[in-house]
Structure formats: structure tokens, C-alpha cells
Amino acid sequence: MTPAATLRSPVALADAGLIAADRLAGLERVAAQYAVAITPAMAELIEVSDADDPIARQFIPAEAELNVRPEESADPIGDLVHSPVEGIVHRYADRCLLKVNHACAVYCRFCFRREMVGPGGVRALSAKALDSALAYIAGRPEIWEVIVTGGDPFILSARRLRALMTRLAAIDHVKVIRFHTRVPAVAPDMVTDALVAALQAPGKAIYVALHANHARELTPAARAACARLVDAGVPMLGQTVLLRGVNDDPETLTALMRAFVETRIKPYYLHQADLAPGTSHLRTSLAEGQALMRALRGDVSGLCQPTYVLDIPGGHGKVPVGPDYLSETGVEDPSGRHHAYPPAAA
Ligand SMILES: *Cc1c(COP(=O)(O)O)cnc(C)c1O
Ligand code: SF4
Question: For ligand 2, what atom is nearest to the CA of residue 151?
């Protein structure tokens, strides 16, 4: 059954048959803490008969979210320590995040900004705050790239996106504008011709990074939405969070990376799941992530290889976390056999 509208509460999930009525009380406690939203496109994908459905695991709240561990933090990647003005996170010299809104089309149970996104969180940037954020960018010639994120910027109206692009386009030193979104997969109908047109900014390179975690999210409608962007000259990147029980096996991860590449989306990052509160049931170890990356390397096309990255807790930045094929004396091949490699001639 496809619900007509986004499901936004445990009661709505129960009415749609996605959760059993006896879970309502427990899940109301979770929903009081963290926003819930499942779009019709994602609700339709959920196999209710499968208790381990990877789509359900990403979007249906779980009692386990109330289990917060000491290593978890409300600001796991240290956005706050690098936020000079509201709406900007400037951690690396040549690029900054511009967080234009705090709402999303869906609310992911593992979200690293889960304490900040959602209807109960901060709302969209006020006009005044947006002015200050854009003034910050305009005043820093080292900012070569602006990464528009949120929340999800693609839930903004085409009119607001166009206004934003016009203002960014007027800043000479900004050459690249990158959007991070889940909308093309979770609400493909929202990628309208008007939205695609609104992204165009003369003289700037526009990129769209799609966050998707399972091949099933790339439905025919999602692939068509991505094709509208790519056909309009917008290169796309794939961004995936490694999640226990969602994509933490080689076949599932390979299928996802291939689905991206078939959709003309270059896999960019595989993120180690951040230490967001109440998400330990969805996190793998770094060793498991490395083993998965090793499984992908060799038999799967190079186009399908993302870089496995960790955003170091506390705001210390993103770094690749292997696996590493080099040793003091040589190099390992994709099957794990060691080979000597000579030092450079003196
Ligand atoms: C992830 C992130 C970026 C983007 O990093 P890339 O490696 O360029 O994709 C930029 N700024 C902040 C604060 C980030 O967290
Ligand atoms: S769409 Fe992104 S920002 Fe929104 S809840 Fe999901 S992971 Fe978080």
C-alpha cells in the first residue's frame, strides 16, 4: 500500500501497517526525542513481512534509539566549534557548509545532525541570518566551494533555490556549488524541471551529492529524477553511510555502488557512521568497514569504489580510513598476497 502523504508519527506508521500497534507507546517516546518522516516512495519500498528490511531500518524509529552510549554526542563531528556565523560550518579553508534549512523529506534514524534537524529543531535560516552567512562567504576569498546542506536543501521551493543561486553566483571567488540531498531517491517527484532549472548558475560548476544507502532506494522513479539532473549538466556523486543491517555486506554494498554508477552517479564517500546519540545498533566497527572495502576492490569496477572516510569525533576533520595496501616492504594485491616493490633509485 502506498500512503498518499509523508508519515510523520508512530500513529501514522501504525495506521499504514508499518509497525505493530503494541510498539506505539515505546516509539512515541522515541518520536518525542527525534523527528519521524517517511515519504510515500520509501514507505512503499518497505517489506513489512521482513523484520530486517533495510529500508525500514533506516526510517522506522526503534526503541534502541533511547539507548545512548557515553561515546555518543549531540554534535558528533563538531559542527558547532567550526560555526563562525549561524548557518555556516567552515572547517576547511577552501570550502564551507551553508545550512539553509533544518528540515528533511525523511528523517534517517542514524542522522549525525539528528539533534538539530526536524520540526522541533531550528527552522530555516531567517532572511537576516542568510544575509550574514552570505556576507561571510563573500568576505572570504579562500572559499572556492560552497556546500549547500541542511537538513535537505532540495525540499526548498524552486523559487527559493533560484534566489539562493543568484546570490551565490554573484560571489566571484565561489567557483563550485555542491548540494547534499536525499530527495532524488526518497521523493523523486520533488526533482521538478523548475528545481533543476533553479540550480543553474552561470559560470559556476554545480554538483549534487545523493545520499543513498541501499540499491532498492534507486527505484526507476529515483533514477529518472537523477537523469533529469545529469541530463541538465549536473554531475552527481554518491554518498553512503555504512550501516549495520542495511548495507554491511559485500553483495549489498556492491549492488548499491553499481546502482549509483548505472545512474551516472560516481560513488564518492562511504561514511563510517558517526557517534550520534542512540545509533549504536546501526554502527559497525572500522575493521568491518575496511573488510567490506577490501571485498569491493578487485572484482568490482573501479568506478564503483567510494573512499571510506571517518569524520573524526570532535571536529578534527574527515580522513580516509583504509584499508591500506602498502607496507614497509611492498604492497598487497586485491587477494591479500604480498608483493615486494623496490625503493626509488637514489
Ligand atoms: C564533510 C564536510 C565538508 C566536505 O568535505 P569533502 O571532503 O570536500 O567532501 C566540508 N566541510 C565540512 C564542515 C564537512 O563536515
Ligand atoms: S536526510 Fe540527511 S540531514 Fe536529513 S535526517 Fe537524513 S541524514 Fe539527517
Answer: 3
Instruction: For cell 529524477, name the residue.
Output: 225
Residue nearest to atom 6 of ligand 2 (CA): 108
pTM listed for this prediction: 0.97
The one-letter amino acid code at 224 reads A
Burial (0-12, 13-18, 19+ Cβ within 10 Å), 45: buried
To the nearest whole percent, how much of the chain has pLDDT over 70?
A: 99
Mean pLDDT, rounded, of the chain: 95
- 257 is in which domain, residue-wise? 80-319
Residue 74 lies in a domain: no
Q: Whose CA is nearest to atom 6 of ligand 1?
A: 318
Max distance between CA atoms of the chain, in angstroms, equals 73
For residue 178, the ligand closest to its alpha carbon is 1
**Residues 107/59, Cβ–Cβ less than 8 Å:** yes
Q: Is the pLDDT of residue 3 over 90?
A: no
Residue 108 near ligand 2, beta carbon < 6 Å:
yes
- What is the CATH number for 152? 3.20.20.70
